Every structure is written in structure tokens, then in C-alpha cells.
Hints:
The protein has helices at residues 2-11, 26-32, 154-157, 164-177, and strands at 19-22, 35-48, 54-67, 74-80, 82-84, 87-89, 102-110, 113-116, 123-129, 132-136, 142-145, 162-163, 182-183, 190-191. The longest helix has 14 residues, at 164-177. It is built from 4 helices and 14 strands. The chain has one domain: CATH 2.40.50.120.
Amino acid sequence: MMRWLLLALVLLPQPALASTIIALPEAALTSRADTIALASVVRTDAVVSPGGRIVTRVTLQVVKALRGTRVGEVVVMELPGGRLPGLVAHTPGSPQLTPGDLVFGFFESHAEVRRPLGLSYGLLRVRQDGRGYRVFRETDGLTMLSPGGEPALPAVTTLRDVPLDDLVARVTARLKELGVAIPDQKPGVVRP
């Protein structure tokens, strides 16, 4: 009897404790993202997608545009999971955002929405302190692998208390190496 009980417990569905992602180095994130921007969260709305999944649509206003968007543009980011009346869907590693949050994102476009590369790995938190704006990567709920399939090294995955200007300078330099036109920081202008 005890053997059957143990077998039943092992075979019961277990909640996922982590989402597995490929932790790309910053240069690869920059190369792969079709949209890179500093943006402010305007609103969040949980909806049921056409495929029947619960997702959260996050309305962002672009504050600084590096690729694929313009300053002042409003873009919609889609994240897995969300809260609807009587329903909660949670995806480990998916960022939880509230209006007023400031984020720096590496995004891929999917139809009319953008999704951060690697869930919260590609959506960095930006906070202001006495030293200026600082960037942080939150990786709770993520299992991170290198592109080769081994556990990702902390030197690649860790981003804590980095000056925003330093990150913007590195990403801008990489985009210039790739020959990408950097948007002017005035709404609607792209400079070569």
C-alpha cells in the first residue's frame, strides 16, 4: 500500500519551480533583440490570449530608444501569466511589474507585442538612488544555461548596481559595431 502511495505522489503533476532559459551574454542579447529601450510601465492588464493562455499585457512608454522604437512611443509587452477574476496563472521567472516601474529591455517582436528575451533575464530593473540610475537583473525563478547547455556562469548572468549610463554606452557601442542606426532621443527621429 505504501509503495502505491509513494508512486502516486511521484506521478502527480508538480508545480514548476523555475523556467529554463539560455542566458546570452550582453553582446548576444544586443545582437538578437529587435527592440532595445528604457521604458516606464504605464499599465498592466491580464487577458486571455487567442490561444487560451493567460498573459499580462504591459503598456510601456519609451524614455530612451536604442533600437526598434522611438522616444515617446507607447509599446505593448506581453508576459506569460497574470491575474484574472477567479484565475491566477504564474510562470516562474516572469517579471511582475506595476505602473511607475522603470525597465531596460531587450525585446523580440511577436505580431503587435514585444516579449523580453529570457523573461526577466532580458528585462532589467532600473532604480534611482543618490548616485543616479542603477540597473539590476532579477533572476528569481530562472534556471540559466549557457548557449552550450551548461549552467551559465555568474559573470554572464549577474548584473547588480550597474550605472544605467554605463549599460547604455556598452549597448550603443555594440549596436554601432553591428551597423544599427541609433534613434535620436527626440520623438520620431532616427540618426545614422
